[in-house]
Amino acid sequence: MKITKKDYKHGIVELIPDTVDDLYAIYRILKMGNKVKASTSRRIRRKEDEGRADSGERVKMTLEIELEEFAFHGFGDNLRLKGKILSGPENLVSIGTYHTLSLSLMEKVQISKDNWTPMERKVLEEVEKSSMLAQILIVTVEDNTACIALVTQFSVKIITESSFSVTRKFSDTKQHSSEMGQFFNEVLQIMQDTNKQYVPQVIILAGPGFTPENFYEFIKNRDSTIADKTRRVHVSTGGRVGLKEVLSKKLPEQIAKNQRVAYETRLLEEVFKRIGQDTGTVTYGLQSVKRALSLGAIETLLISDDQLQIDDISKRMSIDEIVEENSKLRGSTVIMSVNHESGEQLSKLGGIAALLRFPLPV
Predict the structure, then answer these.
(1) pLDDT tens per residue, range 316-348
(2) Rounded to an integer, what is the distance from CA 36 to the centroid of its chain?
(3) Is the pTM of this model over 0.85?
(4) What is the residue-wise DSSP string for 50-64?
């Protein structure tokens, strides 16, 4: 997600979702009464069309509504928002009538609130941070060519695209092996330099035939750090065309998403592990977490995202205060999605838990 404007003082945030997860993040922070402005289309009936049920021309426009209903349909990649029109082209729409916005990927949406809570700000902060840091290095190799690119949600930067002179194997096996070793070594050196400079989360090694497999074995014998980050993928060709094939399969997005789920899963496993071992360094439930916070004991605060929209205003305000205070004390806060099992399990614990720096006094 790209956040183009963030003005909490005036209650306005503008953003551009580019994945379904971004639409879900927007869904998580919406509340009834929020104002949402986005591009949409609306059927406009001219005088000459009156009396005809299927008449009217669908016109593209920008409308702002006051939110009364909203629903997220994950399988349909669809976030639909319904409310009264607050602003729009007055020659085409009547202010106060109802309209349903269907938010689209890659189109700007503006959200206005009287107050952005610490929880809502945290959601945006995490989405923005993951967008900036979710860098993936893609390396495509085929025979004697290599293409290395750094990929983020918003850009693809070609680091190098090289071709090396390698003797054909059937003409001189020994020389071929030596030259392939030099080729692999040069590509690995570039990968190491890039890893040091950009610290990508994952390296995707792709290409046809046996060359990627042989190169991976080469990496494993020389750099375990690079090897541990590397995921192998088969594509039909190397070079930029192979890079495009990797991107067309949406592998970077899927890997980033899987990493987030795995991270949240590990955190909740640690919660249950500490509960089972009775270490005293974990707590859950609103009042217990508040007590841990008051003692400065929280290392990592875990909250299920269904707590963003609970009807209990008092509890919601208490959670917001906990998030804000934990931030001041430099504790980590992770908001976990109930769209996967770990978030569901946390929700059953009351929606809030904390891993502690030290056991609490009885």
Answers:
(1) 889 989 998 998 898 888 888 887 888 899 999
(2) 22
(3) no
(4) TT-TT--EEEEEEEE
